[in-house]
Specification:
Elements: H1 3-14, E1 23-26, H2 30-41, E2 48-51, H3 54-62, E3 67-68, E4 80-82, E5 86-87, E6 93-94, H4 101-109, E7 114-119, E8 132-136, H5 141-149, E9 154-157, E10 159-160, E11 163-164, E12 172-177, H6 184-192, E13 197-200, E14 202-203, E15 210-215, E16 218-222
Parallel strand pairs: 1-2, 1-4, 2-3, 4-7, 7-15
Antiparallel strand pairs: 5-6, 6-14, 8-12, 8-13, 9-12, 10-11, 15-16
The structure holds ribulose-5-phosphate.
Function: Catalyzes the reversible conversion of ribose-5-phosphate to ribulose 5-phosphate.
Pathway: Carbohydrate degradation; pentose phosphate pathway; D-ribose 5-phosphate from D-ribulose 5-phosphate (non-oxidative stage): step 1/1
Catalytic activity: aldehydo-D-ribose 5-phosphate = D-ribulose 5-phosphate
Length: 223
């Protein structure tokens, strides 16, 4: 099975967790895109979705799924479905490879349950092989890079087509490589405390409640 087959298998498996008549949260990335395409098949069973990025909002809308602004939602979303760059068996994750970490963390925090959908290549014992994304205020990027280097990794400004990558929120991203994150909740808190950091792509203090993991011998549920 290809990696895309595994992503499709977890996208399909996630559909059974979608409650009828509700608004759900939807993440960003290639696995989330498979999920959005599957969601389109049952779109009449939901009221709509809150999107974690412009790209996701566009894809939802292209399928005729109503996209809600989080500011118009007054109740917790029952479920948030999203992928991950790395995940441990305990549900701690690195996210933000697609640059949508801030809105992803916001919508996850607005949801009762985070269901991670990932292929088996994302499962790790220790987070950090995937460079840790940190969204920062642009004028503070070099100051924050020096502060992040204290944790032992190498922060690099994310570039796209020769220019700094700019998030949907108008910020930039530092990708910190070379970390071995043995206590992700602690590192998340420390990085959150650096002035000028908008969001760190560690989802550990509040991680995934459930992970649907696409493996060559079927979808496994890690809870
Ligand atoms: C985007 C994310 C994605 O969930 C993460 O990058 C995984 O993406 P993919 O499903 O394409 O592997 O955090 O900001």
């Amino acid at each position: 099975m290809s990696q895309d087959d595994l992503k499709l298998s977890v996208a399909r498996a996630a559909i059974q967790y979608i409650p009828e008549g509700k608004i759900i949260g939807v993440g960003t990335g290639s696995t989330a895109n498979f999920f959005i395409d599957e969601l389109a098949r049952i779109k009449n069973r939901i009221v709509g979705a809150v999107a974690s990025s412009r790209a996701t909002a566009d894809r939802l809308a292209s399928h005729g799924i109503k996209v809600f602004d989080l500011n118009d939602i007054t109740e917790p979303l029952p479920v948030y479905i999203d992928g991950a760059d790395e995940i441990t068996a305990k549900g701690a994750m690195i996210k933000g490879g697609g640059g949508a970490l801030t809105r992803e963390k916001i919508i996850a925090s607005a949801s009762e349950k985070f269901i991670c959908i990932a292929d088996e290549s994302k499962l790790v014992d220790i987070l950090g092989k995937f460079p840790l994304p940190v969204e920062v205020i642009p004028m503070a990027s070099q100051l924050i890079a020096r502060k992040l280097a204290v944790f032992g990794g190498k922060p690099v400004l994310r570039m796209k087509e020769g220019k700094p990558f700019v998030t949907d929120n108008g910020n930039v991203i530092l990708d910190v490589s070379g970390l071995q994150i043995k206590d992700p909740a602690n590192l998340e808190e420390k990085i959150n405390n650096i002035v000028g950091v908008v969001t760190v792509g560690l989802f550990a203090r509040t991680g995934a409640n459930l992970c649907l993991m696409g493996c060559s011998d079927g979808v496994k549920t890690l809870a």
